[in-house]
Specification:
By secondary structure, the protein is α+β, with helices and mostly antiparallel strands. The protein is built from 13 helices and 22 strands. Bound molecules: flavin-adenine dinucleotide.
């Protein structure tokens, strides 16, 4: 027999397996010895009231063998005659490759950067010495921008595809099963590289090819059909192409535009990374003073408001995380955040961003938004990737900070007035937005211990590569993921990549 149960529990009972079992048995009035297994279906935290609760929805197996939480995907050995070129090995390219492989199609992956472990060294050098490798950094290389990301895996795009399948494939390759039922699944920047490496091994073990250090510089066409890709070193790889190059690869947009592919400007959002002491965020969210109650994870927040009809919101929050230099070009500063699986750091950081509408720029220029964003990144750049910074209370009062609170950003920070480095529309909307968030938290959000670092700009692509209903633009050409302008975040990029692979498989009669 299987009984479903929904409980509202204390954090101790919700997060400790043996206490959870006791609570379930008590509630169902059954002996623990009769329970053959418990499968949590969903677990979330309800922190709306003073007494924080953990909501658990579970299937309780009594005298029956419990189902596995997910079904493992079986990959056949691929057919060398059925092949597709996948450009970019971020979430979209990775999951496109896995989907091709599942259907017996050989993915030929071309990735401009290095394998994920070499990337770890290059990002460490950037953090320590301020030296950037433009082909191996937080944006480029195996795993894409997702590799050193926070690894938050929630998405609003579940309607567009099977997010559970993506999460199951992560678990199959080493992620913790809790990502299948936690309301806010999270892997952590320390674990993602090993999971990505395991996925690479699956692809290679089943006949797929992965080529690192291969920067694609053009697409090969015949009679208006894309039949392959050409790399910077003159090498060519033949097959229909899934282009999953992310939104940092500006060179890709330029070569596509020159070759007559249709691109358009896209609305996006930009602002700052905001860093608070984690204990302050915990106390706001969990209504506690000082130490966070045991068993509760480091808290995050999500804020959204409108300032003069323009969205201002928090984005990609990293509790217990660090702010990182995520640039892929010299002379341009990009910040982002990540956190390890434990989220054990003393600071919480989050993007705080302002909606930027393409209608406000020259809509006929596909690169108008990209240039606008580029302008901010260039203005914020200083030698060695030092970041402009301002104490939050000084930003509210628009004055240069005489001193700055400690930060996790590994490069130097330079006191500035954010109003001097950010466009007026961003700085003024952020200020109003922060005042609104402060009211919502009874005066606790604006803090002299909080620090603004600029800029947060890579929130979503500023360019869209147009495609039709069947996800292609020309025969043989399937733009996918964040860089194509149809996804944002790890899971939605992964879903988009998978769907592009299915379209390609259908068009070429490759599907099993
Ligand atoms: C530090 C950081 C933290 C983040 N945290 C999160 C998070 O917690 N949760 C979340 O959902 N999202 C997060 N994101 C965003 C997320 O990583 C992206 O949305 C996602 O990676 C997009 O996937 P993608 O495959 O479309 O593109 P990308 O991940 O950008 O991958 C593109 C790949 O293409 C390669 N490439 C580019 N040009 C070429 C070329 N010409 N030839 C060959 N290869 C090329 C690149 O090297 C790269 O590997 C974070 C991003 C960063 C930088």
């Amino acid at each position: 027999m299987v009984r479903n149960i929904s409980l509202s529990l204390s954090p101790e009972d919700g997060f400790d397996d043996s206490r959870l079992r006791v609570s379930i048995c008590r509630s169902l009035r059954i002996q623990s010895s009769s329970v053959t297994g418990i499968r949590i279906r969903k677990r979330s935290i309800d922190a709306r009231h003073r007494s924080v609760k953990v909501l658990v929805d579970a299937d309780v197996y009594i005298g029956e063998t419990p189902e596995k939480l997910y079904k493992e995907t079986v990959f056949p050995f691929s057919d060398a005659k059925k092949r597709a070129v996948v450009v970019g090995f971020g979430p979209a390219g990775i999951f496109a490759s896995l989907t091709l492989l599942e259907n017996g199609v050989t993915p030929i992956v071309l990735e401009r950067g290095k394998d994920v472990h070499s990337r770890l060294k290059d990002t460490a050098i950037l953090s320590r010495e301020g030296k950037l490798d433009t082909e191996s950094n937080y944006a480029f290389g195996e795993g894409g921008a997702g590799a050193f990301s926070d690894g938050k895996l929630y998405t609003r795009s579940t309607k567009r595809g099977d997010a559970k399948r993506i999460l199951s494939l992560f678990v199959q390759h080493g992620a913790d099963e809790s990502i299948l039922y936690d309301a806010r699944p999270h892997i952590g920047s320390d674990r993602l590289p090993y999971i990505i490496e395991n996925i690479r091994k699956t692809i290679e073990a089943h006949g797929g090819e992965i080529h690192f250090g291969k920067k694609v510089t053009g697409l090969i066409q015949k009679n208006d059909e894309v039949i392959g890709a050409e790399c910077h070193d003159g090498s060519t790889y033949m097959g229909p192409v899934i282009l999953a190059t992310g939104h940092s690869a500006k060179d890709v947009y330029y070569f596509l535009s020159e070759a007559g592919f249709i691109l358009e400007a896209k609305s996006t959002a930009a602002g700052v990374r905001l860093e608070h002491p984690q204990s302050l965020v915990d106390s706001i969210q969990y209504h506690c003073e000082g130490v966070r109650p045991q068993y509760l994870p480091p808290a995050s927040y999500s804020f959204r408001t409108q300032v003069n009809g323009r969205g201002v919101y928090s984005f990609c929050m990293c509790p217990g995380g660090v702010v990182v230099p995520a640039s892929s070009e010299e002379g341009s500063l990009v910040l982002n955040g990540m956190s390890p699986a434990s989220r054990g750091g003393r600071k919480a950081n989050s993007g705080m961003i302002v909606e930027l509408r393409k209608e406000e720029l020259d809509e006929s220029d596909p690169f108008a938004m990209m240039r606008f964003i580029e302008g901010i990144e260039r203005r914020c750049f200083s030698d060695g990737f030092a970041a402009p910074a301002e104490r939050m209370t000084d930003f509210i009062n628009d004055r240069l900070s005489p001193s700055l609170p400690a930060t996790t950003y590994p490069r130097p920070v330079l006191p500035v007035r954010m109003d001097d480095v950010l466009p007026h529309v961003i700085a003024s909307s952020l200020r109003e937005g922060f005042l609104a968030f402060d009211r919502a938290t009874r005066g606790r959000f604006i803090s002299s211990e909080a620090l603004l670092l600029a800029p947060e700009t890579r929130t979503s692509s500023p360019v869209r590569i147009l495609r039709d209903e069947s996800m292609k633009q020309r025969c043989g050409f399937y733009p996918a993921g964040e860089g194509a302008g149809y996804a944002g975040g790890i899971v939605s990029a992964a879903i988009d990549g998978s769907e592009a692979a299915l379209r390609l498989g259908g068009d070429y009669g490759y599907l099993l």
